[in-house]
Design brief:
By secondary structure, the chain is an alpha+beta fold. The chain has seven helices and 19 strands. Strand 10 and strand 11 (151-165) form a beta hairpin. The termini are far apart.
């Protein structure tokens, strides 16, 4: 028993007037992994049983589907190519593989003899499209050592991932529950989700080892998909005929202690800037003045208390402000030194004097906007392009303006070369 290609003419409207079956896939949604083929149209067979497919019946295969023909519980033929196929009880398996590789042939040879019921004939369809929107979420925090924070942090994450079936025969045999005719990914996902989360933790730990900052994890979906592929795909392909296609992280959250560490580190980084520190000191003083003015015992009492505090801590605040100002001045001087060094490292050819008296770089004067004048260059007989009165390569004097260099290498005057007779360019 097998299938052969059917010509388009044989599946025209006249076929509906015959009793042969026209087999189509039952409803296949975005998360359907397998569905059974059913008889449709006016030609549905009323003579045979539900598990009997008559010789000459037509099976329709759509894009992104893999059709399997079963007889007695064993796979006798299949097609991954779209089109119409005719059931032929006298033919050998045709096995139209489409874009699938040779591994499919190996799976067929391995599993086609596993039947049990000798009279049942069925058609099943496997979804070859990307199966999207499989939700995941970490139940327990995942440890993540971040080199930037130099701390062991803990995060939770949730999002979605997608899979693609790469070996539908192996997937049917290993992953589909027996006697099921319509299977959604959610029906079989419990075991795979645990394996996915285990691989997710390994992949996130690998990102940590590679030095990725914890705050960048949400933007690393593509990289995480590659980590997951390295961690999980080999096992899933070999054992179940499917692979991870993509991973999308919707959010990352931190436990309470990790959030405190991150906040403390960020505040410390901000206060490392002397201008921010000085603003904080001035703001604190202003808030103290405001609080003193609103003291319930009267503003006089408040200001007296603030004055006493200022006398005790005034020298410390003054020292802090002085240190901030000194560091800001040092930063400005360091920046000025860098800019000066950058300017001095420019070659003399990059610096030119504008007619307005301003020294500039670039194509236009930064003072008046006039364009940089063209260089007055000339070609020496030695072949070197120079400026000035003498060649910077061989020292020959610059020729008079009424002389020119011919392509033959001869220096000439007039309209024609005195050596070869070529006209002056």
């Amino acid at each position: 028993m097998g299938i052969i290609r059917a010509l388009k003419e044989t599946v025209s409207g006249s076929l509906a007037d015959q009793w042969l079956e026209v087999i189509e896939p039952e409803n296949m949604g975005g998360q359907t992994v397998m569905t059974r083929g059913i008889c449709t149209g006016k030609g549905a067979n009323k003579k045979g049983g539900r598990d009997v497919i008559s010789n000459g019946s037509v099976i329709h295969v759509y894009e992104g589907q893999f059709m399997m023909l079963l007889d007695g519980g064993k796979i006798v033929d299949y097609s991954a190519e779209p089109g119409y196929f005719t059931v032929d009880n006298s033919s050998m398996p045709s096995m139209f593989s489409g874009q699938l590789d040779d591994a499919l042939q190996n799976s067929f040879d391995r599993f086609r003899y596993g039947g049990a019921t000798p009279t049942a004939q069925k058609v099943y369809y496997i979804n070859l499209q990307e199966i999207k929107g499989i939700r995941f979420g970490t139940r327990n925090p995942i440890n993540y050592f971040d080199n930037f924070y130099n701390a062991e942090l803990f995060l939770r994450t949730h999002g979605t991932y997608s899979i693609r079936i790469t070996d539908p025969i192996k997937f049917y045999v290993e992953a589909i529950p027996k006697n099921q005719e319509q299977v959604e990914i959610g029906d079989i996902n419990e075991q795979y989700l645990y394996e996915f989360l285990d691989a997710l933790q390994s992949s996130i730990n690998q990102m940590s080892a590679d030095g990725v900052r914890i705050s960048y994890v949400t933007s690393k979906s593509r990289e995480l998909s590659k980590y997951m592929a390295d961690t999980l795909d080999e096992d899933w392909k070999q054992n179940r005929g499917m692979e991870i296609q993509a991973v999308a992280i919707a959010s990352v959250s931190y436990d309470e202690e990790s959030q405190k560490l991150i906040t403390m580190r960020n505040q410390g980084a901000m206060l490392g800037d002397p201008s921010v520190r000085e603003g904080y000191v001035q703001g604190a003083f202003a808030r103290g003045m405001e609080a003193a003015g609103s003291n319930k015992g009267g503003s006089t009492v408040g200001f007296m208390g603030m004055n006493m505090g200022a006398q005790m801590g005034g020298s410390m605040v003054a020292n802090m402000s002085a240190a901030n100002m000194q560091q800001m001045q040092m930063n400005r001087e360091a920046q000025a030194a860098v800019e000066k060094q950058s300017r001095s490292s420019q070659t003399k050819e990059d610096v030119w004097m504008c007619s307005c008296g301003h020294e500039s770089t670039g194509k236009f004067c930064s003072e008046c906007g006039k364009p940089r004048p063209e260089k007055d260059t000339w070609m020496c007989v030695c072949g070197h392009e120079s400026t000035g009165k003498f060649c910077s390569e061989c020292g020959r004097p610059r020729p008079e303006k009424d002389t020119w260099m011919c392509s033959c290498g001869h220096e000439s005057t007039g309209k024609f070369c005195s050596q070869c007779g070529k006209p002056r360019p």
